[in-house]
Design brief:
Number of helices: 6
Largest sheet: 7 strands, mixed
Shape: globular
Helix content: 25-40%
Number of strands: 14
Distance between the termini: 41 Å
Length: 253
């Protein structure tokens, strides 16, 4: 399938799936705990994932599928693999904070090939195909050219990783001593896209899952930025890891 046709179909599916979030019955979210304190899932996480997987199987049936709301995750192999977060920012969604997103990443031979991130509340859809630039709502986007001292730095935390509290706060303090200010949104996918669009200039989180960063990492790179692991080596997509992103390499502390 032509990559632009593929992209258009995935964008259409993301927008359609976003309506499930917008139309959620907030009196009946059916909130359940996952592993770890403060790690939640709602019935809408599962509904959105089911809708996305059903749609993607029709679009690219030969692909493998990895989604957050699965009890067992498929292995990433050569060929195509979709990596999906149906609602990135579930705690925001539960609290009607309106900073949650659908993230759909597509790997080709284990490397990022296509990424789509949709915030249905703002009706903003970010997307990229490898080698073709990054876009938001049809307009090409690019990272800023700011130095770190003029930058806004986004960062993420997770209450269920208690062992990372101190290191996360120390890293945030280090960035704050060099940058203009810090922000925390509660959605890593949105944070990565905001760096790609030049609204912020760097991002870090010490532990993320592949569905949190698969799509956003490609969008940043296609927007001219960098997105790597904590060791500043290329990201992999088969395990949890820390993520650093910035408009330019020298802004990674």
């Amino acid at each position: 399938m032509n990559e632009q046709v593929l992209l258009k179909k995935i964008i259409k599916l993301a927008k359609k799936s976003g309506k499930i979030m917008l139309n959620a019955d907030r009196s009946n979210l059916n909130i359940n705990d996952k592993e770890g304190h403060g790690n939640f899932v709602t019935k809408y996480d599962k509904m959105v994932q089911d809708a996305i997987f059903d749609g993607l199987k029709k679009i690219l049936p030969e692909a493998n599928f990895v989604g957050e709301e699965e009890t067992e995750h498929a292995k990433i192999t050569d060929g195509y693999t979709f990596i999906v977060d149906p609602i990135d920012g579930t705690t925001n969604f539960i609290n009607d904070y309106k900073l949650s997103s659908i993230s759909i990443g597509l790997l080709k031979d284990k490397e990022p090939f296509l990424g789509v991130v949709y915030n249905p509340y703002l009706k903003e859809i970010f997307y990229a195909v490898k080698g073709h630039g990054a876009f938001c709502n049809g307009k090409q986007i690019h990272v800023s050219d700011k130095a770190l001292e003029d930058s806004i730095v986004m960062f993420g935390t997770a209450i269920y990783y208690e062992e990372l509290f101190e290191e996360t706060m120390e890293t945030a303090k280090n960035y704050l001593s060099h940058a203009t200010d810090l922000r925390r949104s509660g959605s890593a996918a949105i944070d990565l896209c905001n760096v790609a669009a030049g609204r912020a200039d760097a991002f870090f989180e010490l532990r993320l899952c592949p569905w949190d960063y698969c799509a956003g990492s490609l969008i940043i790179q296609e927007a001219g930025g960098v997105c790597v692991g904590l060791d500043k080596q290329p990201l992999t997509f088969d395990k949890k890891q820390g993520v650093l992103a910035a408009n330019k390499l020298e802004n990674l502390l």
